[in-house]
Amino acid sequence: MQSKSSKVSSFIIRDYSIVLAILLAFAIFSVLNPRFARTYNVLSVLQHASLLCIISTGLTLVLILDEFDLSFATLSSAAVCLSVNMVETHLPGFFAVAVALGIGLLVGLINGLLVAKLRMQSFIATLGTGTILTGLNYSVSGGKTIVVVGGLPPWFNFLGQESFFRISYLVPMMVIVVVVASIFVRYTTLGRKMYGVGANKEACRVVGVNVAATQIVAFVACGFTAGLTGFLLASRLGGGHPLAGDEFLLQGFAAVFIGMTMKGGIPSILGTFLGSIFLAEVGSGLTLVDVDYTYQYVVNGLIIVVFVCIAYVARNRLMERSAAAFATAKN
Amino acid sequence: MTAGNALLKVEHVTKRFPGVTSLDRVCFEVAEGEVHGLVGENGAGKSTLIKVLAGIYAKDEGSIHLDGKEVAITDPNVATALGLSFIHQELFQVPYFTVGENLFFGRKYPRNRLGLIDWSAVNRQAADELSLFEVPKDLEGQLTSRTSMAYRYIGAIAKAVSQKCRIIFMDEPTASLTRDEAEALFAIIDKLRQQGISIVYISHRLEEIFRVCDRVTILREGKVVGVHQTGTVDMGTVIRDMLGEALLDKYPKTKIDPGPEILKVEDLESRIVPKVSFQLRRGEILGLIGLVGSGRTELVNLLFGLDRRTGGRVYIDGKEVNNSNAKRAIANGMGFVPEDRQKQGLILNFDVKANITLANFMKYCLGKLGIINSIKERQAAEKYVSRLRIKTRSTSSSVEHLSGGNQQKVVIAKWIDTGPKVLIFDEPTKGIDIGAKTEVYRLIQELAAKGAGVILISSEVEEILGVADRFLILYKGSVVGEMTPDRATPHQVAIAMQLGRNGNGNGERNANRQTQA
């Protein structure tokens, strides 16, 4: 039977259409409004993309496992509120960061245990934890924007609002997260096992893979990035709001799904990165072209639908091809 | 080719599941450098034995010894560490990994100084391990989903060998290989045996067992019924051991005069099913027998509209029909009792009466609005429960906890309710105890007596001979012969299933030779 002898590593991107889409969108928006192409705007887009990318990277791990996390967005909102509240208590600055990361790790661990040990469906488990968090967010913040008397200390806003050479500090943070995640997924045993479990959970169990460990680690990582994003978001906004991070829910999944079109329907860290950039780019472009804010939702929704279709068609074809090899050989 | 000492000894291992004893004091032995075949009908216990040895199931009684020492195989990693490698039928490889990546999945990866996986070392080592076999260069870098089944299988073997395995268990290895690829596999098995690696070869294809194995162990209903040297035993004896004594009083047979033709299939084909033609008369029970993978389910899926037809014609009651989907098929008068009753035949969350009325619920609705008349539904369900003797507390109990036999009766009741002209049964008695089996046969006979045409798929020779009026033998996707029970012995049929030869000519000759031996 035909076998293509190309040294294709499973990590290397094989479908560049997303890069094409980014470039195409850039071209279109620049023509529609020349201000789009200005350095200032490009850097602004990068800054928007950074936060989305950080939180989506954790989500990517969960999706690699073929599970869902519906709680990460409200989790980041919780991290926002908690870290701002921490500042009010005038405890050392370290605590504000710690509490954001801490809640992220804690909720991530809870999600992981629910799915791995109690064998709950991740969709339902995280829907539950997410809803609880929403309630907590409201009660902690009283439903209003948290305004800190006297404003937030400069160190708090540093990462979110300052920049070096006009590039926001959020960008290198994103790069660090993406690089660490890429290394984990590609160069560690646990990372490889995550792909295996996502492909066929029962098969991995049969082969002796510790499926529970992969699940717990993925959900904890997702919680961690949610917490981190929460802190950075608070830093950027200079305040806290119980719904601050909620918008990441849809955009996060969108970013990962867009990235899935890159590797035959499989989630990937690099794919998510490019997906975040694409979403931020389109969001900015539409604003500059004076598209009504509400229409942006429509566009975002359309993007998600289109890309998810492409991603799943690609994934089905990949699975089908391997099943077809099975069938044709049988006859 | 002399085998060494006993390497693996399974002694009196018993494994019970609720309602059935899958392994009953099974004793099994594999010697060093031996190729040992394991055969038995579906449900005989082959996969259970393998799963116990693989650490997937825990045995209830008995002991397992390796190299004379008792071992406890508590999970798959322990099995691997002990040198037991398993190549399952489904292969369990990740389709979007490369072949080399799959070779190392679950193993210790070579690391670089930073403690990270060193991919160039992985690929180099994978290439080395694969070079022991005849594979194209750079196979390790190829995506598994783009690799042929044969090379994927070699990858699985390479993985086993590289993990210093002592016994490789191959479950239906040639199920997805072509003739040539199977030959190449046999050559590899021979090479492995010469290196002192033992192989346990599980297969339905007795021809291969005799070709490749030194010894063969036969399982039937959870017990070991025979261990033979393949050099000295003949296929007839093996088949007889597998099937046991035919209990013909298990099959209530009433003489039915077949009526006019109710189903005619002419050159029907699809992407998977080669051209097939046959006829079925009212009151007739047509059997379809063949090994697993011989294409029976594919054929009836095509008949019932679950697969796309690419050619041919189907006539029901003289009229040409187009069963393009299940709904059409039902409307045209066909019913289908599927093989996997839990997944395809029932809705486990629903109760008995809902399942019974499932295929025909418009009948139970008030007007055309689709609101179900629950009184009518319940009455109908109760009628079937008593007529079919379904053991359930009430028609409102969930079907989930009914026994296999009673679940099957619910599925059958569902189809009887649609008043079909042609009813297809796919392995209806799989996983059902003897008593319930007889009742299912009685039902099938009843349906035929009422004028339906019945197609019965089975892989149990004795079942087909006991129930069908005539039957078609399938081999590797095509119909290779047609027989009637009164003119065929179980051995003839079994041989035809195994070798694909038409039972009328050669089959008969073979059978005579066996009985004379």
Give a description of the structure.
The complex is a heterodimer of chains A (331) and B (517). Chain A is mostly helical and 331 residues long. Chain A contains 13 helices and 2 strands, in the order ααααααββααααααα. Helix content of chain A is 74%, strand content 1%. In chain A, strands 1-2 form a two-stranded antiparallel sheet. The longest helix of chain A is centred in the C-terminal third of the chain and has 38 residues, at 293-330. Chain A is globular and about 60 Å long. Mean pLDDT of chain A is 83; it is low at 1-13. Chain B has 517 residues and is of the alpha/beta class. Chain B contains 18 helices and 22 strands. In chain B, the strands form 5 sheets. Chain B has a 6-stranded mixed sheet, with helices on both faces. In chain B, strand 21 and strand 22 (478-483) form a beta hairpin. Chain B is globular, with a radius of gyration of 25 Å. The two termini of chain B are 26 Å apart. Residues 503-517 of chain B have low confidence and may be disordered. The A-B interface holds A 1-10, 183, 186-189, 192-193, 195-196, 199-200, 203, 206-209, 263-264, 266, 318-319, 321-322, 325-327, 329-331 and B 54-56, 75-77, 79-80, 88, 90, 92, 94-98, 101, 105-106, 109, 116-117, 119, 123, 136-139, 141-152, 175-178, 181, 272, 293, 295, 476-477.
